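stuck on this fold:
=====
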Amino acid sequence: MKLTASKLNKFLFFKLPSAFICGVRVKKLDETACVTSVKHRWINQNPFNSMYFAVQAMAAELSTGALVMYQIQKSGRKISMLVANNKGNFTKKATGRITFVCKDGHLIERAIQESIATGEGQTFWMKAIGTDEKGVQVSEMDFEWSVRVKP
């Protein structure tokens, strides 16, 4: 069963309901990139008339995590995945529809192969850039992922 945007959105509903309720959705997924989106609404606002930072973090993390899940499925192995660290930079108020793009799919396959070869966990950083409807960057999030082949 191939991992697709619609299957990930169903996964959100059942396994990450807070992200689903806040409006986080996967728009596009392939081997190299993932696009997620979330619209500023009452349910995900902060007191400053913009999107709460944690909602942006959910959408950004999903754009990186979906790529990790995609590559794990492609490997055919049982591999654990975990966010080990994250950093965020917010440059503008997030209003309207915010789109997060991660183009770091190429980093994952290497780490998975190394974990399979050595049996040890591997870590790597992935970046997601959030832009508003005008194409202006509102945030940049970095996530350090850890992957390890299960015994």
About this structure: Helices lie at 5-15, 17-22, 53-75, 105-118. Residues 76 and 129 are 29 Å apart (CA to CA).
